[in-house]
Amino acid sequence: METWRRIIADSITTAEELAECLNIDPVPLAQLVRRYPLRITRRYLELIEEPGDPIWRQCVPDPLEMVDEQLPDPLDEERLSPVPGLIHRYPDRVVWLVSNECAVYCRFCMRKRRVGCRLAGNGGGVWDDAIHYIATTPTIRDVILSGGDPLLLDDECLETILARLRAIPHVEMIRIGTRTPVTLPERITSRLCRMLKRYHPLYINTHFNHPREITPLAAKACARLADSGIPLGNQTVLLAGVNDNPTVMMLLMQRLLAIRVRPYYLHQMDLVRGTGHFRTKVATGLEIMGALRGFTSGMAIPYFVIDAAGGKGKIPLLPDAVERRGNSLLLRNYCGETVEYEDL
Fold first, then answer.
1. Which intervals hold domain Radical SAM core (predicted)?
2. Is the C or the N end of the chain the one with fewer CB within 10 Å?
3. Is the previous residue joined to 231 through a cis bond, with omega within 30 degrees of 0?
4. Distance between CA atoms of 85 and 94, rounded to whole angstroms?
5. Is 194 among the catalytic positions?
6. Strand partners, 49
7. ∠ CA(92), CA(96), CA(97), 5° rounding?
């Protein structure tokens, strides 16, 4: 068994195991873990310095997850899915959910309703359905592999997907969204990088949310990918109690550049059920963006975006480009539609 598979097998997955590690009461967590699965690699758990710190908040279940009753799928991904596992929101690109598994189940996950649960239609015929849809839709030039985490697939399985996509003439680029450089850097092996290198143009977006996540092992994993010619971007989620602070955010973005990862998106928290305690006001993100501009390199400044409910797509925000109406914001999406966003 590969090292990274042994690490996954040794992960913490029950309230009782977690309680023993952190010296907390497992009883309030048991029902929660049955509803929203738990997994934390022991190395990621070691990054916790004290209860409630930025690493703790991202991975340790919180009873507040059970009292937030937003929609489970506010981005309308199910409606935008022409075949199982494929999301076609924008004309020239699709998101393909090839895995429901992650090394760590983040408590703020936008797909909290499905990650860690059994993946309907994985592999075989359903992969055929996704490939057939992409191959017969010539407007698709960009395929984003997501999940879960695509790098929780083994090398052979992942290569099968990449090879089949590369055989489609109109697919110009492939992107992979993964948090393994943060939560399971051991997954980024030399063997994996040699395989990925065969399928350029290939891009990887990873997901660092706090400067403490940029460990020596994480930096080494990113270096291996970058040395394989893979451009690296980062998508950060704005999280209350984690990174909703200009100083923390600036340090994160600067450290990302130091390990050859370009900041790409800063996401306003999606209105996903079970994640309400992570949400900040939009004004917090605008304040952070204002603190970054002019005070650090332009390369260190991501796009601050809201993913509008109802499948309306990502809307970039600038400090002077948001119109307020009462408790709502009026935003303009990529189609030129005016979208009303409730600023909770």
1. 88-300
2. N
3. no
4. 10
5. no
6. none
7. 155
What pLDDT digit, counting tens, does each position of 227-274 carry? 999 999 999 999 999 999 999 999 999 999 999 999 999 999 988 999
Q: Note the pTM of the prediction, 2 decimals.
A: 0.91
- Rounded to the nearest angstrom, the gap between the alpha carbon of residue 185 and the centroid of all alpha carbons in its chain is 15
Active site residue 222: no
In sequence order, the 6+-apart residues with CB closer than 8 A to the CB of 6 are none
- Give the active site residue among 90, 199, 203, 334: 90
307 among known catalytic residues: yes
pLDDT at 119: 58
Cα–Cα distance measured from residue 249 to residue 242, given in angstroms and rounded to the nearest whole number: 10
> Given the DSSP bridges, would you call strands 338-342 and 328-332 parallel, antiparallel or unpaired?
antiparallel
Does the pLDDT of residue 335 top 90, yes or no? no
What is the tens place of the pLDDT at every residue in 184-229? 999 999 999 999 999 999 999 999 999 999 999 999 999 999 999 9
Own/partner long-range contacts of 155-164 (Cβ < 8 Å, ≥24 apart):
155/191, 155/192, 155/195, 157/123, 158/195, 159/195, 161/96, 161/98, 161/127, 162/196, 162/198, 162/199, 162/202, 163/199, 164/127, 164/131
Q: What's the rounded Cα separation, in Å, for the pair 166 and 271?
A: 35
270 an active-site residue?
yes
Whether the link from the prior residue into 147 is cis, omega within 30° of 0, is no
Catalytic site includes residue 335: no
Structural domains present in the chain: 3-342 (3.20.20.70)
Told to judge if 193 belongs to the known catalytic residues of this protein, a careful annotator would answer no
Strands 303-308, 262-267: parallel, antiparallel or unpaired by DSSP?
A: parallel
The first and second tokens of residue 260, run together, are: 């050859």
DSSP type of residue 40: B
Is 187 among the catalytic positions?
A: no
| DSSP string computed for 281-303 | -HHHHHHHHHHHBTTB-GGG-PE
Residues making up the chain, counted from first to last = 344
Catalytic residue among 39, 43, 62, 106: 106
Instruction: State yes or no: is 34 an active-site residue.
Output: no
Confirm if 139 and 91 have CB atoms less than 8 A apart.
Answer: yes
Catalytic residue from among 39, 57, 111, 114:
111
